[in-house]
Amino acid sequence: xxxxxxxxxxxxxxxxxSLREQKACLFASRSQLExxxxxxxxxxxxDLANVLADVDTKIGAHACRINHPRFLAFIPAAPTFVSxxxxxxxxxxxxxxxxxxxxxxPAMVEILVLDxxxxxxxxxxxxxxxxxxGGSEANLTALVVARERLRPEERSRAVLYVxxxxxxxxxxxxxxxxxxxxxxxxxxxxxxxxxxxxxARAVARDRTAGRIPWVVFACAxxxxxxxxxPFDDLADLCDRERLWLHADAAYGWAAALLPEGKAxxxxxxxxxxxxxxxxxxxxxxxxxxxxxxxDGALLRQxxxxxxxxxxxxxxxxxxxxxxxxxxxxxxxxxxxxVWLSFQxxxxxxxxxxxxxxxxxxxxxxxxxxxxxxxxxxxTQLSIVCFRHVRPGLGExxxxxxxxxxxxxxxxxxxxxxxxxxxxxxxxxxxxxxNWQTTAADIDAVVALLxxxxxxxxxxxxxxxx
Length: 465
Ligand SMILES: Cc1ncc(COP(=O)(O)O)c(C=O)c1O
Prior knowledge:
16 helices, binds pyridoxal-5'-phosphate
């Protein structure tokens, strides 16, 4: 066991130690991978060292390095080494984190970690929650809990309000719980935010039409733009109208670690429920998301069931079965990696990470402007959306030009960017959550983009469309 462990540890350390020298993205087609990996399930085993070599050359060689300092696409993730070890401990112990009877210590750590998150965000005592596989599961769980506020006969008339910048996992969650498309109302946004005034008009219209306004699903850090909805205004309206206010803060919640970040999330402490992913901006390895619900008792009301063969697991008054708070019975001890990394690094380390990301964002915005790029939406949290405008090109051709820039960066392997559409225009995006990204990385990526712009202008770049 020691020998095998040493081999795996060496393998991971070599990978992490050389990350910066590796390509940020490595692709392969299905047919390439079929020819590399397809085989019947092996009847007899072989040497671990031999298998690890295959992991490197046949598998790892064809996957992006999400934690590469220049992987700035989508919402990336860059776990701390301590939290990677925490995940390994979780697998090693394999505690059953579903019921108190079987894992009281792990349940207490999950309670504690969720309480820390609650305190960062300023939610009151009585709030409860659970750690999930990620934001998608947390968003679905939130809708199931919010449904407890409806009588069964009201369900078909209930309306869910979302903004244009929502994450699509809410649409999928709505579909899973059986909402019809006409029960989802997209409320007009101004400047990418869900405006309380537009929402108030939509709610009034729906009440007049006999529908039942139910949940407002707002964003604290939209995936596209980083936009934060005006939670104070939305909470005032939701109080008046008795609506459930949910914050999808899967990405943005970690800003609450800093006073200036808390100011950006103003009003978030007033929500009924909040999705927060430690595996995004809190440097934790996949998978760990989370949900907090202000009226914590509703979680049990929505999920707890006790068949005969589970009668033994009934928790005491002040104990928690996390299996009673969500979809899964068998659960891994996800809280351990968060707890371990807070213990070893201190919350100060995570505050520094968020501060560092915000500083990089300001720097990137300034550098892009002075390097001839246009900032599209105003920068929020740690996301910058921008594009290059090539003089003399029409709108469609500007989009193609920017598409070629994204593709050229990806093909170089030196960085990985993603694109999006904002106000109908194609935009490039930077998202900073990685503790290893430096200002020099931003210099290098902007220099790369500038080089591709020049090559294109000189007619040296292969058209991709
Ligand atoms: C705002 C937001 N909500 C929800 C999700 C879904 O989270 P997950 O991918 O952890 O399921 C994402 C993922 O990027 C997100 O950015």
